[in-house]
Every structure is written in C-alpha cells, then in structure tokens.
Amino acid sequence: QQPIYQQILPINYGRKLDYYFKAGMKIQSSKNLRIFTPQPTDVQFRQNLYLTKAGQMIFPVIYDCGQNPLILEKIPNIKINPMIAVLAQTIWNHNLPYLQVNDHIQYESIINHFLSDFKVRITTRDFQTQFKSWNTKFTYLNNHYDRFMDVIASETDLFEVHSLVIQRKKVNGLYPQFGDEHFIDQLAKEILIDKAKPIIKRVWQNRKNNDVLGILSKREMNIFGSETLRLIFFVQKKSSDWQDFRESNLYTDLQPFFAEDAANCVALGMISSMNAGVFPLYQSQEHNYYDHNQLYVGERLKVLKAQIVGSDFWIRIDDHNPTVRIEHKLY
After folding, report:
1. What SS3 class is residue 100?
2. How far apart are alpha carbons 188 and 10 in whole angstroms?
3. How far apart are CA 166 and CA 153, in angstroms?
4. Residue 217, SS3 per DSSP
C-alpha cells in the first residue's frame, strides 16, 4: 500500500486574499502550468520532487481554502472579489483541499482539470460582467477619494484624522429579534445610517468651530458579522502642537452621542474591524496627524488610503457597491 502524503507542506499555510488573487491572475495568463518538477527549487515537496513557482503559488491557496472563514462564507453578507470567489469555488468543486497526494502524476492531472475548468469559468459572460463591475466601482471610489483629499490639501498642510464607530451588535450570531428589548424593525444598515445622521449634521454645522474639512463614512463588518458604520473626520490643524482629543471642539460635538448597551455601541474609533486595514484609525497623535511637508508623508497617506479605500478591492458588504461614502466636503 502506498504511503499517504500530506497535500501541502505544513508551514506558512495561512494565506491572505492577495495570494488568491495573484494565483487567479497567474492561471488566467498562463497556457502551461506545472505544479511539480524533479529540478531543485526553493520548496521540496518530497524526495526528488519539488514545487515549481506556480506550485508554490497555488498549493498554499488550496490548503487555505479549507480553513479561511471568508472563503468558507462563515461571515454573512460579505462579498469577495469575483476573481477570488470563482477561484475558491472551483477549488471546492474539485474537492482539492481534502485531496491526498499519493501519486503526484495523477494529482497533477487532477490539477490540470481544475485549471482548465477555472479558465472556462473566468471567460463566461457572467464573470466578465461581475469582474468589470467590481473593478469599475473600485476605480470610481479611488477617484472620488483622491478628489476629496485634493480638497483637504487645498485648505491646509496640517490635519488630523479622527473616527467614530456606530455598531449594531450581534449576540450569538443574531441581531435582536422581535420581542427583545433592543429590537428595531429595520435592517442593521438602516439603523446605523439613522444613528449617523444627527452626528454628521451636528459636526458639519459646527465646522467653523471644530475645524472639520470633510467627513467620510465606511461600512465595516467584524468576524462575528456585527455591522459597523465608521464616521471619519478630517480636521484642520493650525500647528503641530499636541492637544488632548478630549479637549477639542470635535470631541465636544461627538461626546453626547456616545452610547453602549447590549445591541449598540457608539464610541471613538478604536474598534477594529475586518475591512478597516491593518490598524484601525486610532485617536493617538502619532497615527492620525499629517503634515504635507513632513518626511515620508506620501507613504503615510498611501497607508491611510489603503485603510479607508483599499479594502474595497478585496471585500465589500451585501453587493458590489463601495463601502465608503463622502458625506461632506467643502466643495
């Protein structure tokens, strides 16, 4: 009886969505892909057998596909980039995450069927429509964000970014049901928008005192499926002097809206989420103060854009529409 080998080396198996996208694009552009080679490479699969560059790209994705909660659709209402979604679906249709590699030649044949199937799926009219829609709306969001930031730059070189999160909590995977104390007969999205309106109105009407130059909102979702609306405020600074945020006029405007109960939370933006970037937008001076004349400010602004806009390339909520909205800008 032949020994049973693990289908992938058990190291570095966790993969970001970026790996899926790169693998999908690699398959799309390639006419001939081999997974194994007898020629030594960076990764040895077993004795006298190595993974090609393509194998090193595709194998970890196949393994991750069996455990990634985003790919397994464990989080409701999340939409993934169509290229990634179709790649994952095709992997599952061929049962690759649980397929053992006893005979690498036979396994390579199965992989070839999977690759051919994937290439057919991404050339269908339906996929092309979905992929174009996804990319068009991402480009639209990018352009609008850039114009928003141009307005900020035209007004000041010094600014801070602060955020407030409005969250509708889930308990045991469910929002409050009919008969529960905090039940509201609305979708979570609608509840958050209604709670945000008076906050946005208060802050914008008082912008001459709180120095707010623009307001964005961003829909977010955490790993438990609780939905959040993050309000992001761009605030002009007169100098680089440090000021406790609690002593600012913006804090005075926001403080009356702070709330916490079993179903709702309105708080400063220190609640991390799945699609808010690597770091949430903290209130600390080091993270949120920007000077257009400072060293490396361009790189920091790229990080800020990645936090706010970049996640829309990978995941969105409910549909293909952007998660970010410009609530107010000066012009």
Report:
1. coil
2. 40
3. 28
4. strand
